[in-house]
Amino acid sequence: AKAALEEAKAALEEAARDKKVRELSTCVSEFVSTEARYLADLQSVAVAFLEPLRPLLPPQLHYAIFSNLPQLQGLHQGLGTDLERATSETASDSGQACVDAFSKLLPYFRMYATYCCNYPNVAEALCKVAAEHSGAATALVEAEEARGVKLQALLFRPVQRLCVYPLLLERMKKSSQPESQMRTTCESAFAALQAPRFGRWREGGRFPGALPRHFPEAPAGAQLGGQRAGTADGGAAAHDGGASPRRRGGA
Q1: What is the DSSP letter of 47?
Q2: What is the pTM (predicted TM-score) of this model?
Q3: Phi, psi angles (nearest 5°) of residue 226
Q4: Which of the given ranges, 19-33, 149-163, 194-208, 231-245, has the highest pLDDT on average?
Q5: Which residues contact 178 (CB under 8 A, 6 or more apart)?
């Protein structure tokens, strides 16, 4: 009877582990697929709106609308590539690889402070386009009609996405094994995304060193996390001896 009880207990524990593995696999798939859709949204905004409007608007008004969206796009291109690699691992390893990929770039999510603080000014900037720049206003309306969505709504996507990451991390944490490295990593990343830390970033904290290679530069004079673009603390310098992305041909 004792042996049978032990066997039943072991079977239940194995079933619980298998359930967590399945749940974790679902979480990883959701993380990767939603990240891919988000990156596609950023790229669509760049192709349909940001670049066509650039020659039609003064640089400062253009930046007032799009802020540092190109840098967010660069950030998520790198994250998307790393997350795709994670899906090639086994279920448990892919979860750890997924969280590691996110945590590696988490310090650069400070860029969202700049973007989110600028977003409330977008409506006013778009009104100024309609009132003072007829060519840009016409191009904007045509692009919105072609896609059936307003630019202001599309520009809200980064604000929404930032709120999704804690939910994804919490689900992955619950799907991980107790006392596992993955659970610890999820908890650390989740804590880093909470309001107090982002509050300090909004107050003008410094970037954690040079920007990765795939991050484009912001316009001269633009504010990035409290630092002016084109300075070492503003993040315009990149790796490889401090050469900027633009000098390497990657604006």
Answers
A1: I
A2: 0.73
A3: 90, -5
A4: 149-163
A5: none
